Amino acid sequence: MTPKQHSAPSVRQLAAVVDGMAGSVSEGRLRQLRMVVGMFDRAVGRDEMPGRASRTAAQLFTWAALRPFWDLAVDGQLRHWEKDVGKPLPEWTQRIVRDCLKILACEVLPAGKTVRLPSIANPEPKATVGGRSLDALYRGMVDLAGQGPLERDGTALSYEDRTRLLAIVAVMLDAAPRSGELAVQSLSDLAPGETAVAVRRQQQKAPPNRVEEIAALAEVGTEAARSVLGGWVERVSEETRQRVLAAVAELEPLPEVEWYPLREGSRVAVRRWLKVRQGLVESLPLEGAKTALWVSLVPSKAGPPGVPLRPQGLRQAYARGITALNWVMAGAHGWEPLPTTMEQIRRSVEAVPVEGPPAG
């Protein structure tokens, strides 16, 4: 969109500023900035906005203009597509808009002049787990791995199951990967001697929810973006599919691999799992399937024992193990039941990557 297509002089000036930023910001960011220009174009002239907001681009960044602009934006009143007007902006889209406002203010306002930016109401996340509980988790897993076959209330944990679970927990406590990041790990992601593990960050340094970012760029609903990304194209129109695919193409690449050191106890846990794993994958017909770090223990719809675990399978294995640990430890002095979701544990860990892959 060129500056001449906007009605208010202030928005035309802002659009010209954004056009001048081409080449200095990524294509994805440029698209986001133009999205915000469009939002200003739809806001200026409304009863909620001050009349002087139409005069110059600088007037758009006064609190008298930003406050009603933000309220309108969050309420979904400034959406591009008429059918979406009134749908509140999700939190991540709000963050994108706020980041763009900060960038544009720096370009428009005189050097040294500060701007008051709107705040984002954060939903309460699920409680994390304290350091003492994390230590207790690891010690409990070690004890659990050394016990005999466990079965209670329909939950059974074999030696292989406990060995795999201890290794998963060890890697989680040292590297804080998500289930999807665990699922794509292979043997090559272990450093020589199991001294470190590699994690291909899918969301940690990227937006908290990449689907939300894609939806914001494509200006479609989150569920529509998720349908396209999941391959359920019959649920959306061809126009929506093309817009989502175009947004994906404009996204900046995900971060590179990060390496995290493994503690001595974690190395031992991983080595024990590797021995169990080797026996599971030996009979697999395809060599490519033998490289996954985390594999299944029993036959399933995905295939025979030894096939790569999917994120859902990892989450289920973790939940089953923590459930077992909680009832084994029930009644022990000072024991507090641990959450059975991987995400609550992951967010409790402060993992620090090392500089580059370990030598070896």
Task: Please give a structural write-up.
By secondary structure, the protein is mainly α. The chain has three domains: 3-108; 131-201 and 257-346, hpI Integrase, Chain A (Orthogonal Bundle), CATH 1.10.443.10; 210-250, no CATH class. Helix content is 47%, strand content 4%. The protein is built from 13 helices and four strands. The protein has helices at residues 9-19, 27-43, 63-74, 91-108, 131-146, 159-175, 179-183, 210-218, 222-229, 238-250, 264-281, 311-329, 342-346, and strands at 150-152, 155-157, 196-200, 257-261. It has a two-stranded antiparallel sheet with strand order 1-2. A hairpin with a 2-residue loop joins strand 1 (150-152) and strand 2 (155-157). Helix 5 runs antiparallel to helix 6 (159-175) and helix 5 (131-146) crosses helix 12. The chain is elongated. The termini are far apart.
Distance between the termini: 53 Å
What is the CATH third-level topology name of the largest domain? hpI Integrase, Chain A
**What's the story with the biggest beta sheet?**
2 strands, antiparallel
Task: Report strand order across the widest sheet.
Answer: 1-2
CATH class of the largest domain: Mainly Alpha
- Overall, the morphology is elongated
User: How many strands appear in the DSSP assignment?
Assistant: 4
Topology as a string of helices (H) and strands (E): HHHHHEEHHEHHHEHHH
Mean pLDDT over the residues: 80
Strand content: under 5%
Number of helices: 13
- The chain-level structural class is mainly alpha
How does CATH name the architecture of the largest domain? Answer: Orthogonal Bundle
How many domains make up the 3D coordinates? Answer: 3
Radius of gyration: 25 Å
CATH level-four homologous superfamily name of the largest domain: Intergrase catalytic core
Unreliable residue stretches? 203-208
